[in-house]
């Protein structure tokens, strides 16, 4: 039975729908990563998905096939129009995640009709090897195939491949080495690769990039084989094997996309004159230019492919610009009114983005930063007129930092009287993934290791600053800043503190949304073996009030009055499913719904919740215990067991005798439906 609509559901806003959609897509991605790890999704099968859809990023190589396994070429509605094709009426788009982390629709070519798409002509292995040799020179790397020349350049910019190797093996080895050249470490394997091959995750990464690069260049890929991800991701239960698979997958897609992009910009070449005979610079600066082979200037490297150091430098200069502009701005006055003194503002290096469209862009250009780096770092975006404009305008800004303390992004607050989102994060970049970073984690890192200090999860950056300023001996506060807590956040937190020993306290705002957020966080926090607790903040109050109203002790007292988060989750379940708990059927449904929550708890926590549920529902503790046991063993419910979401009102049938039926609940055999 489906649940009828209710005012609560009708009032669900677009932001809630978007968040549910994001949670759904995240679930698909997590399941697909797990499938890669346990072998349900073969690595080669995933590489085929990456070959088709890699330009959209690693996560989308998992999301697209999960929605349409036969998809071969997916594009947006407008992109298909530009290619002379029209999306068929009634077709539903596949949901992928944009670089900013927002869902957007794309359509497979099979969902369109129109002009035929010209397919690339087949390329021989010799031609493919020639293209890879050209690519090597284009990357500023010297390819040594026994030409007999003396190489005087950087040893790390030289690739040696024996001239006697057949074309397919040479192309495979070259593609493997090019993956290492573009890797963060930038060091290819030793020349005697056949005798000293790389191994583990490094080998999986390079061979996977080689697979994708060969598929683009022309040579076949069927000869490549791969070890099971479990063998290089880690079999130890303490290892984050799924995280390792995801990291390698992201590196593979990112590196292969860069190489394939550069390869696509090369003009066709005669294979007979390409590999050893090409006039390659002895200094390792790439192929010598000729009038015949001279190409037009290459456009800027795609934003996601800018070197990390280049982006970090742009962000550092931007941060200095923001900090310099804070004094005298409305932002400084706003923070001061909230109790954040000039010293607090300086300690947290708050800044202010000017309201003009290109203030930061022009500043960074004067500092020598390229437009591509400005976009890649999340500092600029294209306006409707095609001009590069500032991403943050007229906002108070606070910096996100990585584990090394480098600024990687910002969170900005608008003025109360202005429109738009109250808080705005840096868009997702190579450096900044808002679903993986915690505001304040670097600043609180030292105190997280101190005796007696517990990690505290709050909602926003001002909450973080207030708690860490007023209660440094009790809490080290961090915030997700607009996203729900997830395993990536917990992994980041666990690098700084022992969650098994100290647990975690959740202190979201004292309103319905804050309570709902705490309940939603439970599914990710239940795996923490340490005490997971929460607080009950006064209605309409938040931790930032510690500085806003320093004489008011209500928030301070609430933050010291912790209780198990499981209490809140169980109570929410009872109220949501059982409503007023007036009828026996409601109480029985509430007990069974709560039992599914209790089933995931440790024995000592479960015993506490059984007693609480029995007391609230007026049921015998033995019946609650039986419901929990049934939930743990996954016994199927009886025919008369109402599902939690299927019975908003009592069912129209005669219930069986139950300890949940108290004399106060006695009534005629037929149950009157309530309106």
UniProtKB/TrEMBL annotation:
Looking at the record's lineage, which domain of life comes first?
Answer: Bacteria
Example GO CC term: the record gives: cytoplasm
Q: Name one GO biological process term.
A: DNA replication, synthesis of primer
- Which Pfam families did the record assign? DNAG_N (PF08275), Toprim_2 (PF13155)
**Compositionally biased residues, Pro residues:** 648-660
Region span, Disordered: 270-306, 631-675
Q: Which residues form the Toprim domain?
A: 453-530
Q: Matching PANTHER family, A to Z?
A: DNA PRIMASE (PTHR30313)
Q: What's the protein called, per UniProt?
A: Toprim domain-containing protein
Q: Which organism is it from?
A: Actinomadura verrucosospora
Source organism phylogeny: Bacteria, Bacillati, Actinomycetota, Actinomycetes, Streptosporangiales
